[in-house]
């Protein structure tokens, strides 16, 4: 995919120092939703090693892990994310395929480089900072979301990004992807009580009604307001404590000279204790509210 500046410079006969020939460009095909029953109609179906891109294989693996029940479905014990949350696992991520180091033999035959080596040599090195990004290679290895991110980083004017975004979305066949392809979260599906037909796929799916969503938003706002008021109450309480503690300190002849210091120090200690206690409460409450506010797909 050529940039407008490269096309302009080529038109007036000036070579672009930012252009580079990146080997093994990902092929371009017409695409459609995958169905196993129509596997024979897809190009490359006879080669299991290269039929799916690395990103697609990772997405399939994650989908299996995210929907697999490891306990009671009624208790939403579903998916790798829940296991990470319960600290059964520290993390879950896909590993890179192949080495990234490039030697002289690889430079002599760049077509034999693996995708990771190509990205490292033609994109991820400091010496390539002024070069055009190989967005199709980035998309092939990391997926569309990461590809869009780095494409956005390479845009100078935000107004130009609208056109760039639409162009890439059409080129990569991800127009309206979330609306058409996003599936309900397995944690929500496990204990969902309401279902509705998806207007696009006509499949019965877990449904989160707007009335329940509004009720949760209102309840969340009330919790936030209560916690803000609680903070204000504690601030006023610390100020009052500081003034009250000064009275007996000034009445004591031995402590009168340093009464202000003692009052300030004790008030600071009380304030520190309150902050630490409220921090634990905030952390627990924030997590509960975030999980409670999640819908069947989004937060």
From TrEMBL:
| InterPro entries named in the record | Anoct_dimer (IPR032394), Anoctamin (IPR007632), Anoctamin_TM (IPR049452)
- rRNA processing keyword on record: no
Q: Which residues form a coiled coil?
A: none
Q: Where in the cell is it found?
A: Cell membrane; Membrane
* Pfam families with a match to the protein in the record: Anoct_dimer (PF16178), Anoctamin (PF04547)
* Domain named Anoctamin dimerisation: residues: 3-135
GO CC aspect terms = plasma membrane
Domain Anoctamin transmembrane positions: 155-293
Question: Which terms does the record give in the GO molecular function aspect?
Answer: chloride channel activity; protein dimerization activity
* KW Lyase (keyword) present: no
**Topology in the membrane?**
Multi-pass membrane protein
Swiss-Prot/TrEMBL keywords: Cell membrane, Glycoprotein, Membrane, Transmembrane, Transmembrane helix
Annotated membrane-spanning segments are 217-241, 261-282
Family label:
Belongs to the anoctamin family.
Q: What is this protein called?
A: Anoctamin
Specify the species: Schistosoma mattheei
């Amino acid at each position: 995919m050529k940039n407008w500046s490269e096309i302009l410079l080529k038109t007036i006969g000036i070579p672009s120092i930012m252009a580079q020939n990146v080997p093994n460009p990902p092929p371009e095909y017409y695409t459609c939703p995958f169905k196993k029953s129509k596997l024979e109609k897809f190009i490359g179906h006879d080669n299991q090693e290269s039929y799916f891109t690395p990103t697609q294989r990772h997405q399939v693996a994650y989908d299996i892990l995210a929907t697999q029940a490891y306990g009671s479905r009624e208790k939403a014990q579903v998916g790798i994310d829940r296991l990470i949350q319960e600290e059964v696992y520290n993390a879950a991520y896909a590993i890179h395929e192949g080495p990234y180091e490039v030697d002289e033999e690889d430079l002599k035959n760049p077509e034999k480089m693996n995708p990771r080596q190509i990205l490292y040599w033609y994109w991820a090195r400091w010496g390539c900072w002024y070069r055009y990004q190989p967005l199709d290679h980035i998309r092939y290895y990391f997926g569309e979301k990461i590809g869009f991110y780095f494409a956005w980083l390479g845009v100078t004017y935000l107004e130009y990004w609208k056109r760039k975004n639409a162009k890439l979305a059409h080129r990569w066949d991800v127009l309206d992807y979330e609306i058409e392809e996003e599936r309900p979260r397995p944690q929500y599906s496990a204990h969902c009580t309401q279902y509705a037909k998806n207007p696009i796929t006509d499949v019965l799916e877990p449904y989160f009604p707007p009335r329940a969503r509004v009720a949760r938003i209102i309840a969340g706002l009330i919790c936030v307001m209560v916690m803000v008021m609680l903070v204000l109450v504690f601030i006023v309480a610390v100020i009052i404590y500081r003034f009250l503690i000064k009275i007996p300190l000034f009445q004591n002849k031995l402590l009168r000279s340093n009464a202000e210091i003692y009052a300030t120090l004790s008030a600071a200690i009380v304030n520190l204790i309150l902050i630490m206690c409220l921090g634990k409460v905030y952390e627990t409450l924030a997590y509960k509210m975030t999980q409670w506010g999640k819908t069947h797909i989004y937060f």
